[in-house]
Design brief:
By secondary structure, this protein is α+β, with helices and mostly antiparallel strands. The protein has three domains: 82 residues, Butyryl-Coa Dehydrogenase, subunit A, domain 1, CATH 1.10.540; 110 residues, Beta Barrel (Butyryl-CoA Dehydrogenase, subunit A, domain 2); 134 residues, Up-down Bundle (Butyryl-CoA Dehydrogenase, subunit A, domain 3). The protein has twelve helices and eight strands. The protein has a four-stranded mixed β-sheet with strand order 1-4-5-8. It has a four-stranded antiparallel β-sheet with strand order 2-3-7-6, with no helix packed on it. Helix 3 packs parallel to helix 7, helix 4 packs antiparallel against helix 5 and helix 9 runs antiparallel to helix 10.
Length: 388
């Protein structure tokens, strides 16, 4: 497969590269899992929006750039190559927004999307519960309709960005007598609503990237419902498809890590070659990142011709999560004991970020649906195998 770009696409790439070169912060921003870092990342998202770069595929009237998926891939390649900050509003821009585009009313699109593009509203994800992790059909948090409102009671956990975010999108059981994927409703709610309690959850690195959320008679207007009452399962599955299949983890992210891994290997080649398996892992990592990029270009072209993302999103999710693990495990093997230095350690130098990436990579096979669940989906929906 050989990629050839149009003149328009080449000009867009040049524009993006020039703007990023002039605007990317010279020093890395603090982690957005801290209050200071969160607000600095919000300011960066706002700066992106001024050029239409915070949501390049959205219509211009909603705060985007009006680009197609190929131009989005080009933008992502330049973004990661420039070392630009991570996207603090990725739950909103890459997951909720495509779902709103498909299922939202015109009023909801105008209400939520422009504020999302400018990072006035940053969104958290509300899927998992203590008894419903990857199995969202086991959700028990209730949203009972009363006089123009839904009254919510229950608990969510592992809610990404919820510590400092402004809004939450989530799935709640609106029919208390329903079972499994029936009777679920997709709701949007501000996190400062009375009755909501947020408790931070520390990650492996000690920062609070997640939270558990408690709902005690929380009132949410009916107009904050996305889609029909009881139709939340299908809407959530569309969101999960975007998360697993295309938008949340662009191939450029892994291509950049693969390039950094190759550079790391060449810098430490004499020691690394003492273990032949390390060289093989570096080559496999680079090839995997390139293969994922080409596969994503193919998916983007298929979608442009009217196709859709189906159960194959599960194969993508397994591939990129395990590729991320491989790359960071290989980097740790190359660096040896020095890899254990956190980025802020005095002697970490230019290698401290590898440990941070390694710790985050451990979550890859879990979030967006555990890889075990994804293998079940592949077996049943793609291969037609019977349930065990």
């Amino acid at each position: 497969m050989r990629l050839e770009y149009t003149e328009r696409q080449k000009q867009f790439r040049a524009e993006v590269r020039e703007w990023l070169a002039a605007n990317v912060p010279t020093e890395p921003l603090p982690s957005f899992d801290t209050k200071e870092g969160f607000e600095l990342h919000r300011a960066w998202e706002r700066k992106l929006s001024e050029r239409g770069f915070s949501a390049v595929t959205w219509p211009k009237e909603l705060g985007g750039r009006g680009c197609d998926l190929i131009e989005w891939l080009i933008f992502e390649e330049e973004y990661w190559r420039a070392g630009a900050p991570l996207r603090v509003n990725q739950n909103g821009v890459f997951l909720l927004a495509p779902t709103l585009m498909e299922y939202g009313t015109p009023e909801q699109k105008q209400r939520f999307l422009p504020r999302m593009a400018t990072a006035e509203d940053i969104w958290a994800q509300g899927w998992s519960e203590p008894g419903a992790g990857s199995d969202m059909a086991a959700i028990r948090s209730k949203a009972i309709r009363q006089n123009g409102h839904y009254v919510i009671n229950g608990q969510k956990t592992w809610s990404t960005r919820a510590v400092y975010a402004d809004w939450l999108f989530g799935l709640f059981r609106s029919d208390p007598d329903s079972q499994r994927h029936h009777g679920l409703t997709f709701l949007l709610l501000p996190l400062n609503t009375p009755g909501i309690t947020i408790r931070p959850i520390k990650q492996l690195n000690g920062l609070t990237g997640f939270a558990e959320i408690f709902f005690d008679d929380v009132k949410v207007p009916v107009e904050n419902r996305l889609g029909d009452e009881g139709a939340g399962w299908n809407i959530a599955m569309a969101t999960a498809g975007f998360e697993r299949g295309l938008m949340l983890r662009s191939p450029a992210r892994f291509q950049q890590t693969a390039r950094q891994l190759v550079d790391l290997y060449l810098k430490h080649r004499d020691e690394a070659d003492a273990d032949p398996s390390i060289r093989d892992a570096v080559m496999k990592s680079w090839a995997g990142a390139e293969a994922y990029a080409l596969a994503t270009y193919r998916t983007a072209c298929r979608l442009a011709k009217g196709g859709h993302i189906g159960a194959e999103a599960s194969t993508n999710k397994i591939f990129w999560s395990e590729l991320d693990l491989l790359m960071h495990e290989t980097a740790m093997a190359i660096l040896g004991a020095r890899a254990e230095l956190m980025p802020h350690a005095p002697d970490a130098g230019d290698v401290g970020h590898w440990l941070d990436g390694f710790l985050f990579a451990q979550a890859g096979p879990i979030y967006a649906g555990t890889n075990e669940i994804q293998r079940n989906i592949i077996a049943e929906r793609m291969l037609g195998l019977p349930r065990a």
